Amino acid sequence: MKTMIGTGATILVADQATKWYVLGPLALDQRLFVPVLDPYVNFVMAWNTGINFGLFGSDNDWMRWVLIAVALGICAVVLVWLKREGAPRGMQFATGLLVGGAIGNVIDRIRFGAVADFLNMSCCGFTNPYAFNVADISIFAGAATLILLSGRESGAKQK
Q1: How far is the C-alpha of 99 from the C-alpha of 93, rounded, in Å?
Q2: CA distances (Å), 90 to each of 102, 144, 147, in order?
Q3: Rounded (10°) CA dihedral 142, 57, 61, 73
Q4: Which of 30, 50, 57, 100 is the most buried (most CB within 10 A)?
Q5: Which region, left, alpha or beta, applies to residue 57 given φ > 0 means left and ψ of -120 to 50 means alpha?
Q6: Which pLDDT score is estimated for 82?
Q7: How buried is residue 97: exposed, middle or buried, by Cβ count under 10 Å (0-12/13-18/19+)?
Q8: pLDDT band at residue 27 using 50, 70 and 90 as cut-offs
Q9: Is the distance from CB of 113 to CB of 23 less than 8 angstroms?
Q10: DSSP code of 54?
Q11: C-alpha distance from residue 65 to each of 21, 104, 105, 127, 136 (Å)
């Protein structure tokens, strides 16, 4: 569990620190756009009331609390599953990524009513209209890794 806690705490701090920087000293919420490595990486302010790509976005306050409850519920289920399975270090790391990112976005929803997204990446003639944050990257990487490792674990148990 130390690996999971350490990874989750590191991601949570990194996520909140980057959001503090873009909303504080950088004032991205007022400037809306800051070129970083234009046109490949830019800071673009977006307040996301939904989940990935703004799905299920709503200005209704009740939806914010539903998304908070869903995120915390998923974290709880994954943590119980991890503890029951006695997961190896790789799964603990992946769980830390997922939980740390989810809690980072929950903090935003509580503080601001929406998630602060600011990273925008485009390449090779493709202009990405979406913004994301450190927590989003972490949630995706953690969930994908858990799925990959779970498949590997269940395959090993069947043999």
Answers
A1: 10
A2: 18, 12, 12
A3: -30
A4: 100
A5: beta
A6: 82
A7: buried
A8: very high
A9: no
A10: G
A11: 26, 15, 12, 32, 18
How many Å is the maximal CA-CA distance in the chain? 57
Instruction: Based on the residue annotation, tell me whether 61 is a catalytic residue of this protein.
Output: no
Q: Which of 15, 29, 38, 136 is catalytic?
A: 136
- Cα–Cα separations (whole angstroms), residue 113 to 16, 23, 93, 101: 15, 15, 29, 17
Q: Which residue has the tokens 């953690």?
A: 142
To the query of whether residue 117 is one of the catalytic residues in this protein, the response is yes
Q: What is the pLDDT of residues 98-147, one digit of tens each?
A: 999 999 999 999 999 999 999 999 998 898 899 999 999 999 999 999 99
What tens digit of pLDDT does each residue of 36-63 get?
999 899 999 999 997 765 666 677 788 8
Q: Where are the alpha helices (DSSP H) in the chain?
A: 2-23, 28-31, 61-85, 89-112, 134-158
